[in-house]
Amino acid sequence: MKTSMCGMRNADCRFALLGAARLFDSAFTALLAVLIASPALAEQERAEPLTEIRIIEQVTGAVDKAIDYLSDKQRPDGGWHDNNAGNALPLLAMMGRGHVPGRGPYREVLERGKKFILANQQPNGLFASMRPSHGPMYEHALTTLAMSEMYGMDADPALEDGVRRAVNLIVASQSPTGGWRYQPQPADADLSVTVMQIVALRAANNAEMPVPEATFEKAIAYVKSCAHANGGFSYQPGNNPNLQMSAAGTLSLQLLNRSDDATVKKALDYMAPAEVKWQTGGTPYFYYFHYYAIQGHYQAGGKYWNDWHPKVRQLLLDKQNPDGSWDVPPGAAENEGTVGPNKIYWTSMASLVLEIYMHFLPAYQR
What we know:
Glycosyltransferase
């Protein structure tokens, strides 16, 4: 049996997804172990009468409210947005909570979303916007990620064909330097677009969709070329590092089985002093940063994870709106003019950050 990029047998990855609903109790147990292992949280618990079980309830309750919000915002045609990133993210949030196609309270929401996305896929495999887009490879990668995760749960022939064509497009669009850029063609590259393609290819590989090994090797070379000598990663080789790209570069190498690379530790150390606050500061792309940063710290484990996750978790729990949605910090680049209406992007991303504790998606497993 083939072994996936995550180090598990592909059959095991698919079983983990297909049995997600039955494994929820074990996810609770895993989260409890993580919480108990956190010295910072243990200190807090001695000061406040709040049990670990209560924290679990807060996290799952917040995500459940968010999923209800996202479900209510789905259009009758199955979409949420004219940009496919806004259609893929709610599906990912639902699957990240353990909801699977074909059963459960959101089975029709997932089915309508899947059909809408596949119906709008271009003949060359591109999951593009239904309106002009500056950079279709962003949304293509996020949509390929969602469809790949769903394919691991749903052996729909139409879904298999759609994912295969989407993956082939990503492979064909890789630049000679090993990265990807805004357009589906092998020209320039940057780390921001590249990390999204890597996550999408990793998910496809987990779902037993073949990806050439050479594609992964070239991607590793490009990510490492963006590493800064003093720590962190930059948008393109030779630029100064920043927090967003440091999170992206860290997770990219971890997903490509390079967790022990020296640049990963240096990037984690580079991110360590960053303040986790409801403000932009050094992270104008607030959700983009935290989406990759929480995964990178979880993959690193140990002190990196224990020092990072309680702060992020509590911030998001505190900032959730009564209706289950999230907003974005004032002044953030991820404003409604960029990511679209109805708080879909913000709510989906916040949910995905919190769902790191639930381990339902293969990317959320070590």
